[in-house]
Target: Diketogulonate reductase-like aldo/keto reductase
Amino acid sequence: MNLSTTYELNNGTKIPAIGLGVYKAEPGKEVYEAVKSALEIGYRHIDTASLYANESDVGKAIRDSGIPREEIFVTTKVWNDEQGYEETKAAFNRSLSRLQMDYVDLYLVHWPVPGKYTETYRALEDIYREEKAKAIGVSNFLPHHLEELLQSAEITPAVNQIELHPELQQIETQEFCNKHGILVEAWAPLGKARYFDHPTLKKLAAKHTKTPAQIIIRWQFQSGIITIPKSVHKERQLENVNIFDFELTSDDIKDIELMNLEKRIGAHPDEFDYGID
Model:
């Protein structure tokens, strides 16, 4: 097992288990250098979004890496004010243009905008059929959003990217996704480093001679969750993927599961400010 380890999506597409997230990485030199260093380390999965305003720099770093395009898994997302059927198709073309790519590996509905996400997803299905996205999915969807979507969707989402870390494990959403063959992907997988001093993480870090971040990423990896920790620093990028030389025991995993408080850092999807009256 190493950075080339993949999971198989419900349509047979392979997705690297660990990737680099670039949310809030500054457009320009910062995100360019972050992607460049990650690819040099061996990352082959980069996660961006229209909202992040750094797709152009992500695309440039990938091109300049010299690594064949087909060896790198690229995810981007349609933002809330771009949703709707025609609007999403136009937004996707803008993303492709900024990335300077012919296709993306995964295209996601960023948030379940009320009254729009089913039409948005219908556009994603067409994009998939046109082979401009190798897989499609959603982000920040709860079971009730997925239930509504599945009533009209012809293609089951391959991925649901959600906020997920030891203090927010979203058990109900995970169970729903597992039941329907939707792979769970974690954003803010390290809880934005807000509780690295938690006694459980400190205990496990000492036991395995690892950092709290490595304990969390290993837990997600062993749980079959795709994880995309964000770092613009090469040494941290290295640390985040130095998790293949140890294994958590079933008791270790139970200890981490007991950390769950269902406590969010980001917005709740049902309380997000979608700018809709």
About this structure: The radius of gyration is 18 Å. The longest helix spans residues 85-99.
